[in-house]
Amino acid sequence: MDFDVFLQQLVNGLSLGSIYALIALGYTMVYGIVKLINFAHGDIMMMGAYAGYFVLIWLGPSVPSFLLAMFVAMVFCAFLGMGIERLAYRPLRNAPRLNSLITAIAVELILQNMMRVLPFVGPNPRKFPSLVLDDIAIGSVRIEGVKAMVIIFSVLLMIGLYVLVNKTKTGKAMRSVSYDLQASSLMGINVNGTIGITFAIGSILAGAGGVLYANAYPSIDPVMGYMPGLKAFVAAVLGGIGSIPGAMVGGVLLGIAETMVKGYGPSSYADAISFSILIVILLVKPTGILGKKSVVKV
């Protein structure tokens, strides 16, 4: 096996895995607080990609306009995530979990089909105006500038999330609500506000992931978030659903595994491998790599 080719595939896997990790963080944060699998999360990523697309179409692809597109996508997705939580999920917070799960699937379908019928979007794929960056040479290995940018942005966003969750009052409130929602309410924490902020932060990461994904794979359409969203869910389960470090680890591992399959085997097997990993982890270690067992009182 050519070591340079292996390193090249490893970099590709890190680039893809970092995007999966950003999206998986939204899944795991929401599940950690309200025990809900938000299957509409992949479509929030899609909405972020379109928000960035319209900014770049307006200003043209350049570094400043790309940064503005990232900012607009993140802000737009933050409000979208909070709106979905307020209108669709909050009224069902005390309902059986199946009700919330069905609602999440319904929100996913609404977002996809809404974008398909909007006259300025439509069902057809569009070419994303991606940046053209110089490659980076490390020895005999050349790293595409776009993929290096994806990795750098993803790492910075994950570091920002770590600081927010572990070093701020908002993060302390999020951890408290995740541990015990009712006790947090009795201690004076604004539970509804904290859950809304959690949805906003997860949606911000999804919006950023959407722009980065569209920049690395420059084609967008209303159902583009479906498969990355499912794979990010696999990454969240792999790392340990509810664990923020687990989502990061799971996303990176899944991206590397998928890229290695594409590089050294039939690329058509890549999706099958991703979901096979989900089945294996549920059979062998249902809590995931960094997940912890929870005791449910009955």
Keywords:
298 residues; 72% helix; mainly alpha
Commentary on this structure:
This protein is mainly alpha-helical and 298 residues long. The protein has eleven helices and four strands. It has helices at 3-34, 41-59, 63-89, 97-117, 145-167, 169-179, 181-186, 191-216, 226-239, 244-264, 270-284; strands at residues 126-127, 136-138, 141-143, 219-220. The strands form two sheets. A two-stranded antiparallel ribbon has the order 1-4. The chain has a two-stranded antiparallel sheet with strand order 2-3. Strand 2 (136-138) and strand 3 (141-143) form a beta hairpin. Helix 6 crosses helix 8. The radius of gyration is 19 Å and the shape is globular. The relative contact order is 0.20.
Strand and helix map with partners:
Layout: H1 3-34, H2 41-59, H3 63-89, H4 97-117, E1 126-127, E2 136-138, E3 141-143, H5 145-167, H6 169-179, H7 181-186, H8 191-216, E4 219-220, H9 226-239, H10 244-264, H11 270-284
Antiparallel strand pairs: 1-4, 2-3
